[in-house]
Amino acid sequence: MNKQKVVLGFAVLLGLLVIVAPSSPAVDLTGTWTGSVDTGNMGVDTLTLVLKKAAQSYTGILNDSLGLIDKDSAIAEVKLVGNEFSFSFKAIGGAVEFAMKLTVNGEKMTGQLINKAEDQGTSFEFARKK
Question: To the nearest 10°, the Cα dihedral for 103, 108, 111, 115?
């Protein structure tokens, strides 16, 4: 009988510790992020992503140095699950749709820039501007 009480007490204590234990801090993506991609014959295109917290997710605008993306283009399909961040955007007057699938690690986000029509991706990295 005493053994059952000890086991039950331990289980209750463990349950309370799990409930009150601090969870890992939420990822905060607010700010300006930059990254570059080599477009081939057009040269290197630098992307600038500005993110703002909105309710349970983020909103953002995207610009690029070569003018392939309309100025201050809004990102769409924004998702943040744990440290996995993704969004989509259109380029070349809306003719081409891209997706970004990134893993957040501190001041960097690394992953893939994917042309949705061709389902092909290239490695991409954003770094937060200070």
Answer: 120
Nearest by Cα to 70 from 47, 93, 46, 100: 93
Q: How many angstroms separate the CA atoms of 100 and 92, rounded?
A: 17
- Looking at residue 75, its amino acid is I
Q: What angle do CA 81, 84, 88 make, to 5 degrees?
A: 95
**3-class state of residue 35 by DSSP:** strand
Q: Which domains are assigned to the chain?
A: 31-128 (2.40.128.120)
pTM: 0.78
pLDDT, tens digit, 9 for 90 and up, residues 67-118: 999 999 999 999 999 999 999 999 999 999 999 999 999 999 999 999 999 8
